[in-house]
Amino acid sequence: MPTSTSSGDPLSPRRPRASSEKTRPSLFWPLAAIVVPLMGLVFKVEIEGSEKLPRDGAFVLAPNHVSEIDPLVVALAVWRMGRAPRFMAKESLFRVPVLGWVLRHTGMVPVSRATSAAAARATLEASETLVRHGRGVIVYPEGSLTREPDLWPMRGKTGAVRLALAGGIPIIPMAQWGAQQVLPRYGKLKLWPLRRRVRVIVGDPVDVSAYADTATSQTALVAATDVVMADIAGLLSQLRGEPAPAVRWNPADHGQRETGRLEP
């Protein structure tokens, strides 16, 4: 029976056991002391399937992306589930004064924008670091806010699968729904009413073992990513109570850019 937790019930006996990385003193503690209560005013986060997020060890968490504010929801959910929320971040951000220091000291993972060979090497190094330190990382496989008109997951990029396959790390699908009520995609912030309901569901690890021997093949990586995106769409379908599109939205087929602000 799946367990569930709510950010409005921090003392619930069903809350998952915290991992050792969360119980150790770190920079996450003061950040959480500030951010978690503020987010609790804005969102009422309900989590289903929290037991499917590993309590210890490395993992790649792959959520859908419907709003500029949902990284805060995902981070809050991961913290509530007992793990420290770490994201992939552009490598250039690590060179920004102060911000770079925070990113490094919270264990965020840099994303290389260099040549394919350098990017592959950086992915392997990042994967080895996750395994060595037993850390998880949150990777939005879509790469940007979904372009799908009804906010279903669109076609994914291969970064999350590359990272998982490079280190034999479990890749966990997640779907979240409700954050777009507070900040619609490329819209204006709507803080009232407070504590809007946001539902989060965590799925079983995606079995991509069939692609492990061909992890350097772009065709195999795309196929594995399609499997991950199908699982994410299936979880979102459960939250929304309606079937997901059978085919993932491809921005290129509709004359859309895959990055940057979506034109109306």
TrEMBL record:
Q: Can you supply a Gene Ontology BP term from the record?
A: phosphatidic acid biosynthetic process
The segments labelled Disordered in the record are 1-21
The molecular function terms in GO held by this entry are:
1-acylglycerol-3-phosphate O-acyltransferase activity
Can you give the residue ranges of the Phospholipid/glycerol acyltransferase domain?
59-179
Alphabetically sorted, this entry's keywords are: Acyltransferase, Transferase
Which SUPFAM superfamilies does this UniProt record tie to the protein? Glycerol-3-phosphate (1)-acyltransferase
- Kindly give the InterPro entries that the UniProt entry links to this protein: Plipid/glycerol_acylTrfase
Q: Which GO terms describe its cellular component?
A: plasma membrane
What is the name of the protein in this document?
A: 1-acyl-sn-glycerol-3-phosphate acyltransferase
